[in-house]
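does this look right to u?? 0RA version
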Amino acid sequence: MKKAEEQYSASSIQVLEGLEAVRKRPSMYIGDISERGLHHLVYEVVDNCIDEAMAGFCDSIDVTINEDNSICVKDNGRGIPTGMHPKEHRSALEVVLTVLHAGGKFSKDSYKVSGGLHGVGVSCVNALSDLLIAEVHREGKIFMQRYSKGKPTSQVEVIGECSDTGTTITFLPDPTIFTQTTVYKYDTLANRLRELAYLNKGIHIKLTDQREFVDEYVQDENGDSKATGRKVLKGEEFYSEKGLQEFIQYMDAGSDHLIPDPVCIESDKIIPIDIALQYNNGFSEKIYSYVNNIHTIEGGTHLQGFKMGLSRSLKAFAEKNKLLDKFKGDLDPADFREGLTAVISVKVAEPQFEGQTKTKLGNPEVTSAVSQATSAAMEIFLEEHPKEGRVIIEKIVLAANARMAARKAREMVQRKTVMSGAGMPGKLADCSERDPEKCEIFLVEGDSAGGTAKQGRDRRTQAILPLRGKILNVEKAAGGKALDSQEIINIYRALGVTVAKEDETGEKHMDLSRLRYHKVVIMTDADVDGSHIACLILTFFFRYMFDLIKNGYVYLATPPLYLVKKGKEEVYCWTDEQRAEATQRLGNGSDRGVTVQRYKGLGEMSDVQLWETTMNPEKRLLRQITIENALEAERTFSMLMGDDVPPRRQFIEENAHYANIDA
Ligand code: 0RA
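got this back:
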């Protein structure tokens, strides 16, 4: 069926069958029924509160994860109307909660642009919940109605009086729909709520987790945090007074800025546009773009417009002030964005989402709107801040020079890659199969582990490329410098790809038609060093071969941590819980005669063990790297691989799962 037809029949089904259709085909409405879909339910409800806040009636949203993994979302908006709906012969509340897409039909100022990726409304959440309770404070009364699987199980009842207004939705996801998991992840919700707080300044968004107590901290007079010795429920409040400007500071934490304050661009001329940007002394380009509060991971026309407007205004400023007179060569569009961090947020009434993950804006009219707003605001900024302007141009010229100097190295890589048919790196142990779909390559830390992997592998489909120690930290390499590194050249050559090129819209793409393996597996030791190396390799993929990640070709291998043994019985374990369980089981309740061997590195395993636990497709656990949480990944990479030490130390301390093994 064609796309348009599909959508057409979908909307007619909705009218005919209402919420039954949602229960029959939940993925069609909320994307999927995995952990992602489960969390999507929360976003769907919160989006309605954000709409209410955007309309100017709400400034506080409280999200609570209850002990039973039900979710409560409370706002201080006007409250969903509870009066009789003239056409439907039932309360407006019931209509909002049981009719698909009814959420916005009442609002007079109908420029509703928020709404989740699928924008289906609270009624979907209702349909997919075992239990949903709506409580509305409005006109001095407290109204309540209950539902189960989308159907009302009570009338709208007045249960008390109040002097405030607002809506509280409590729902318990239906486990027969969410069969994979019904357990909410605090961090997943926290990341999204934080993002929403930055994107919609002035709203207090609180998250509380009733399932977990944590140590309470207070700030002392020096601003240091100190434990009080008491326990409190886990939670955070997200609030941003200045919006995107603070978002950038959060994303860019730990880098040195080129100009004192971020540049802010706001325009309401054609469509609402909100942009903040900052330059730092790093070398990567970090632009986060949003449409209607949705992170457009694949960019699109708004991003394209921003890039155009930015280069145009900076170029005009440089030429006007004769700052390029000594510069030989020409400026590449990407030169304008080295060391740039920017957040772009636009509101589009009828967004068209395209691309592999449906997170790429297609509306053509948005390009010129954003481009004009950007260049107009940048012109004013540069006019008023000529000193900052000069600093930025100097950085751009530096980037251009570094790029040109690196071009030779790059051309060499290209030539070698393309020309030499037998040009595989000497250390590569290739597989015999030629169909890329069936082929895997393991990037292995160190020659010794590489040797074991070569012995243990399935030669037909598995190739091994040992990497020497720590590969270059590309986060610290200017321009094309990364391409000077022998280990990185080897990766390009082994994979059969060339350096990503920018197209006319400013998007970087790789030619993946010659990619020789559809699984690229990073295999490192299960210790701190190994994690660091995996992180370096991932950073390289993230910055230079993003298309590989986007297509789902990149994986992490997970070698076991322990071997528990009694007599001939052997059990591999990946966690401390598994180890304890295996010890108990093999020892029949005692640990007599049970030995526990801890693997410190891949090199300690025999080829057979490595195959059995980590490489054998039948038994191994591969973790696919996805772009789901690209935002957090980006921040983490910058932080871990950047210059600033304190945040890195903090992160490692908080996340050092491996560090405890010896304890
Ligand atoms: C329909 C109409 C009005 C508000 C809402 C829905 C509304 C929905 C949700 C969902 C969560 N929080 C909400 N807050 C409000 C307009 C009400 C009016 O005109 O008074």
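Confidence is low (pLDDT under 50) at residues 1-16, 104-118, 418-422, 656-663. idk if thats expected tbh
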